[in-house]
Prior knowledge:
Radius of gyration: 20 Å
Distance between the termini: 33 Å
Structural class: mainly alpha
Order of helices and strands: HHHHHHHHHHHHHH
Oligomer: single chain
Amino acid sequence: MLKRQLIMEKALELFAKQGFEATSVQQITEQCGISKGAFYLSFKSKDELILALIDHFMAQIISDVDHLVKNTIKSEKLLYEFYFLTFSSFQKHTDFAKILITEQSQFVNKELLLKTKYYDHLIDKNILSLIDRLYGEERISTKYDLLYSIKGFMRTYSELFLFYKLPIDMDLLCKSLVEKTNLLARQTTIPFINQELIDILNCPIHEEVSKEQLLKTIEQKLEEIEESIEKESLQLLKQHLTNPSLSPAIVKGLLENIRNHPHCKWITYQLRNYYQL
């Protein structure tokens, strides 16, 4: 296991038990069995480590949801699949989901606040795309209220298994939320949240990623993964980024090869958006 990955895994265990603030770098290094010097070779500070954890887990969730919304052929299954994927991700990453929900309101570091706001903005974009696919122009006036309702469902119902550890019938939960969401979408007529309010809430957030940034990320990922079809595909994508020669269909196929690798989810998402696939 790479030292950076070891630090992230052990730190997450401590953060889940004690919270971000109460966990020191000393405790993390003791848990990992490494020196402080070794820690600072991987991360400049505890805040940078927290940012890396947020990047790692949020990138996986957002990339998976983005792929689902864009590639689910049967629209009638999309809402169920969206809820199922979201709650399954929360269950899989229980420790992270729990501390993010409880701790992000305590962030005083500006970079941490901007990071969580950035990912929240990406989640909003995914959900709005889902709403557009499911309900189209029919719900244009109330789509932002529906967005906030869906996010409320996600947060509130996830607490049942994150904090109370109740046995959850995931299939029943998703079917119930599909019914509730459809009722809200079809019956709500009085909008509260409008475009003007959304513009105020969403201060300008830099989203465009340059080719140079993509190449830098790919280089990093190539160092992290072992020889495999994913690594070969990533190398071909890097070559295409430098010297475009592949058809959109081949690029899409290469992205499909790497999208399920835990180290490649975010770069898959970024490349999909860069090539508008």
